UniProtKB/TrEMBL annotation:
Pfam families xrefs: Cytochrom_C, Cytochrome_CBB3
InterPro entries with a match to the protein in the record: Cyt_c-like_dom (IPR009056), Cyt_c-like_dom_sf (IPR036909), Cyt_C_IC (IPR008168), Cytochrome_c-type_DH (IPR051459), Membr-bd_ADH_cyt_c (IPR014353)
Superkingdom, taxonomy of origin: Bacteria
Keyword Nucleus in annotation: no
PROSITE patterns, per the entry: CYTC
Protein name, per record: C-type cytochrome
Gene3D superfamilies from the UniProt entry: Cytochrome c-like domain
Residue ranges of every copy of the Cytochrome c domain listed in the record: 46-149, 191-299, 325-412
Length: 432
């Protein structure tokens, strides 16, 4: 019996090795010849400017810039279940950046996840989305990054453990989860919808944050835009599964993506604030409206018949009633810390001081966003620029924050109660 088990294990191991080798050979790519960095004058100002706007849509700086570091010089750590992966230097530095990359090498990295040296890139770099980007847009992006100031900067070593750190294993991941494709127009939809889909599913790679992932880090098939926890925040569902009291209409989506705030849903905070203000801030209105058109369709907003006035009035009425029951620490904290700004007095919701009964963070299935904002507030550069919300991390204990969040959930939402709130607060405070 032991001999049969041992033989079976050997055969299974042999099959795995053969499969891994086959995947590696299938996805093997040669190194591409280095070039001398092209002069900045080799690119037209119009193409460089187009690349700048596209880089914003892709939010490239957010990942490729370390806190306090030079823009695009890498070093920003991306926490994954497999360890921390540090973004690389994409300035045109010859030694540590991509100064010796040709356009062909750049396009291959974007579309196939392969570096100039032939090494497979980790899929934390979203080439699974960038492969949909057109030749013209990739050329403009290349022109933009190659005209940035070169910076000598070596990214820290990744903390991915052996054997997951072996680059050839990424070939097996690709065989399982990556199907290269080009963007195809949907003739049944209009130009705005198709433009929005091209941006959302390609360069903006929205699904990379808003889609849950499997145990190997790939986006779950059939679960696009259903919401996911990421970087100690929660990226909500962008489909009809979104639990916001009011549907995300095209106008609401446009207002949120353009300004970072909407009276009927709340404000952009955390990573999403950077997407809106630092990323898409330079994008033309036509692209923002195209994204809003596409995601309104994804959410099925047109099919949801909701009496907005009734929902708003009911929400404001709930907010004006504070239930100070015996030992209700959460209600007391709300009166002391929140009511002065968030208690509506004129019967109309306002973007600057969101109506919490309509706020998406309060109705979300995950409390992370609400907890983060209670702890750390909103700086003058987040949400709507110039508007400040103080954080309460120094004045409220984990139990205080948990009770406040629980009170807001039960008094401002019809969704089920959150569980293990105090543990969630402790994780958020520790940045875990």
């Amino acid at each position: 019996m032991l001999k049969k088990i041992f033989t079976g294990l050997l055969l299974s191991l042999a099959l795995l090795i053969v499969a891994a080798l086959a995947a590696y050979l299938y996805y093997w790519r040669p190194a591409l010849a280095p070039i001398d960095p092209p002069a900045a004058t080799a690119f037209s100002p119009q193409v460089v400017e187009r690349g700048r706007i596209l880089a914003g849509m892709g939010n490239c700086a957010a990942c490729h810039t370390a806190k306090g570091g030079a823009e695009y010089a890498g070093g920003h750590g991306l926490a994954t279940p497999f360890g921390t992966i540090y973004a690389t230097n994409i300035t045109p530095d010859r030694q540590t950046g991509i100064g010796r990359w040709s356009l062909a090498a750049f396009q291959r990295a974007m579309r196939e996840g392969v570096g100039r040296d032939g090494a497979h890139l980790y899929p934390v770099f979203p080439y699974t989305h960038f492969n949909l980007v057109s030749d013209a847009d990739l050329t403009a992006l290349y022109a933009y990054v190659m005209t940035r100031p070169p910076v000598y900067a070596v990214a820290p070593a990744n903390s991915v453990p052996f054997p997951l750190n072996l680059r050839p294993l990424q070939a097996g991941w690709k065989l399982l989860f990556f199907k290269p494709a080009s963007f195809q127009l949907n003739p049944a939809q209009g130009l705005d919808w198709n433009r929005g889909r091209y941006l959302a599913e390609g360069l903006a790679h929205c699904a990379a944050c808003h889609t849950p992932r499997n145990a190997l880090g790939a986006e779950l098939a059939g679960s696009s835009y259903l919401g996911a926890s990421i970087d100690h925040w929660y990226a909500p569902a962008l489909t009809s599964a979104n639990t916001a009291p009011l549907p995300w209409t095209q106008d609401e989506l446009y207002a949120f993506l353009r300004t970072g705030a909407t009276a009927l849903h709340g404000v952009a905070a955390g990573p999403m604030s950077a997407v809106v203000h630092e990323g898409m801030g330079a994008s033309p209105d036509s692209d923002i409206r195209a994204l809003a058109t596409y995601f309104a369709g994804v959410a099925g907003a047109e099919q949801r018949q909701v009496d907005t006035d009734t929902v708003v009035k009911a929400g404001i009425a709930r907010s004006q009633r504070v239930s100070l029951v015996d030992n209700d620490r959460g209600a007391s904290l709300y009166v002391a810390a929140c009511a002065a700004c968030h208690s509506n007095s004129d019967g109309k919701p306002a973007a600057l001081r969101p109506e919490l009964s309509l706020n998406s963070a309060v109705s979300a299935p995950d409390p992370a966003n609400l907890i983060q904002v209670i702890l750390h507030g909103l700086s003058k550069d987040e949400a709507m620029p110039g508007v400040l919300m103080p954080g309460f991390a120094a004045s409220l204990t984990d139990n205080d924050v948990a009770q406040l969040a629980a009170y807001l959930r039960r008094s401002r939402s019809h969704q089920p109660a959150w569980t293990n709130l105090e543990a969630a607060v402790a994780r958020a405070r520790a940045g875990k």
